[in-house]
Design goal:
Length: about 290
């Protein structure tokens, strides 16, 4: 009996110690759901860290190249509106926009960098936006289109593509401009098209006289030529390209609602007080309202 009683007492004591441990753990169990419920929002995390991480394209003058450009200055202005500093996350354009958005906005690159808090120069197109359900597109701040820059001494006027049967025209590879020139008028201009890695390289060829004209996005032409009196910039003599225009804005993760609202308000203020127009003028670009 004594042995049995000792055993019962030992079991009772062990049970009391276990109960005490469990009671001690209760606050932790109770706190965990509350902490999860109070997880910081995207904007709160940025303000807590003091940094807005911004995805910026490399080699995209005059918008973002060698640490400067329209989008760089605009990103800094947006960060200032949020009361934080801007940290640039530079990246090379991938094969398509979906890859860029995956790497820089909602997932991150498989090499280990990204995603950013916000990406600059994102397309604001309703049909495209409907297909990309992990990203929120908003705050259009500029309208882009294709244009042709030409040397006035060689091409004082340009009413059609016919002069390019004999004169060289530069384009950036894998762009709509390149596709149009290769197929226009049954391929009549294939022999005079010169393809470059970037629009900037094509503009440099135009300045040196290697080509008589360049077709690229108008902002790239304006920034690259910076008011060069030897040149003119016009819409292309092509009905599709004259109509093809698109707004550019910002992109964040789909769930970053408060960050999107804050950045939208900041963009509105920068447009209203003329700051955005001044930023673009500083880099030679004419601001076109979306």
């Amino acid at each position: 009996m004594i042995g049995w009683a000792d055993s019962m007492l030992r079991n009772l004591s062990a049970g009391l110690r276990t109960a005490a441990v469990l009671v001690g753990m209760l606050p932790a169990f109770l706190v965990a759901p509350s902490a999860h419920a109070e997880e910081l929002s995207a904007l709160a995390k940025i303000r807590q860290s003091g940094v807005l991480k911004v995805a910026l394209y490399k080699n995209f003058a005059p918008f973002s190249h060698d640490g400067r450009g329209v989008d760089v200055d605009l990103a800094q202005a947006l960060a200032a509106k949020l009361g934080v500093r801007m940290s640039a996350l530079w990246f090379d354009a991938d094969e398509n926009m979906e890859d860029d958005l995956r790497n820089m906005v909602w997932k991150g690159h498989y090499l280990g960098y990204g995603p950013a808090d916000v990406m600059m120069h994102a397309p604001i197109d309703p049909a495209y936006m409907a297909k990309v359900d992990r990203v929120k597109f908003f705050a259009p701040y500029h309208r882009e289109r294709y244009a042709i820059a030409r040397r006035l001494d060689v091409l004082p006027t340009l009413d059609s593509f016919e002069p390019f049967e004999k004169l060289g025209i530069g384009v950036e590879g894998d762009t709509l401009a390149a596709t149009v020139m290769l197929s226009a008028d049954g391929g009549r201009y294939r022999q005079t098209i010169k393809t470059y890695r970037t629009a900037g390289e094509a503009v440099e060829a135009l300045k040196s006289g290697s080509v008589a004209a360049v077709m690229a996005q108008q902002g790239e032409l304006e920034g690259g030529l910076a008011g060069d009196a030897r040149m003119a910039i016009d819409l292309p003599p092509h009905p599709i390209l004259q109509k093809r225009q698109w707004p550019l804005g910002l992109a964040v993760k789909k769930q970053s609602d408060d960050l999107a609202q804050a950045l939208q308000a900041a963009i509105n203020e920068l447009i209203a007080d003329g700051s955005l127009k001044a930023i673009m003028q500083r880099h030679g670009v004419t601001h076109r309202q979306p």
